[in-house]
């Protein structure tokens, strides 16, 4: 499952920052960086696109007119160095609005909204069509079915995905960027170093969660997790 996206931005410097952010997410594929609406429209006619990062300050608005004419248009996240243009951006029913310079944490917040509210809903878990993610590890893209993940553990500059078949996949990716890709109703972060699959929890207390014979600590800032589990809110 790869999210195909475009950047349309007249400011090359800010576009390069956004490009770097996108390349840090294994499940995103940047198919083009354009500084004009005309070139972006050519790309859209040639390729199916899921998401567009669009500079709201582009003088030519033909791209928005074109998108509104599509039956299944890609979602749009607007970007701008002018904070006063946010209202204008949302008048186009944009998914989100990112102010330049675009900070990585804010970028991840926007992606979380996109994946959880749009992308995963269009790829629902059912029978033969099981949801999966690709992770870059060992110089190849490895398919990991979401339902097979037990928990994800974070180390200094990489994560380890622990699966039901006892396999461990080491990926050079942050826990925050991984969390942004996972459906919220299936996974919960319980510690700054751990994300767990809710349906794999076999027991819990106020201090730890058990998945099989593995005990995972509940972090100091995640004390509410045990109460939410008890109330059935997770």
Walk me through what this model shows:
The chain starts with a strand and ends with a helix. About 2% of the residues have low confidence. The protein folds into two domains: 121 residues, Rossmann fold, CATH 3.40.50.2300; 99 residues, OB fold (Dihydrolipoamide Acetyltransferase, E2P), CATH 2.40.50.1020. It is elongated, with a radius of gyration of 19 Å. The strands form four sheets. A five-stranded parallel β-sheet has the order 2-1-3-4-5, with helices on both faces. It has a five-stranded antiparallel β-sheet with strand order 10-9-8-12-11, with no helix packed on it. A three-stranded antiparallel β-sheet has the order 13-14-15, with no helix packed on it. Helix 4 links the parallel strand 4 and strand 5. The chain contains seven helices and 15 strands. It is α/β, with parallel strands linked by helices.
Please outline the helices and strands:
Layout: E1 3-8, H1 12-23, E2 28-34, H2 37-46, E3 51-55, H3 62-69, E4 75-80, H4 86-90, E5 96-99, H5 104-119, E6 132-137, E7 140-145, E8 149-154, E9 159-163, E10 168-171, H6 175-179, E11 187-191, E12 194-197, E13 203-204, E14 208-211, E15 214-217, H7 224-230
Name the descriptors:
single chain, Rossmann fold, OB fold (Dihydrolipoamide Acetyltransferase, E2P), 2 domains, five-stranded antiparallel beta sheet, 15 strands, elongated
From the 3D structure, determine the CATH topology of the largest domain: Rossmann fold
CATH architecture of the largest domain: 3-Layer(aba) Sandwich
N to C succession of SSEs: EHEHEHEHEHEEEEEHEEEEEH
Low-confidence stretches: 125-129
Helix content: 25-40%
**Mean of all residue-level pLDDT scores:** 86
Gross morphology: elongated
Strand order of the largest sheet: 2-1-3-4-5
CATH C-level name of the largest domain:
Alpha Beta
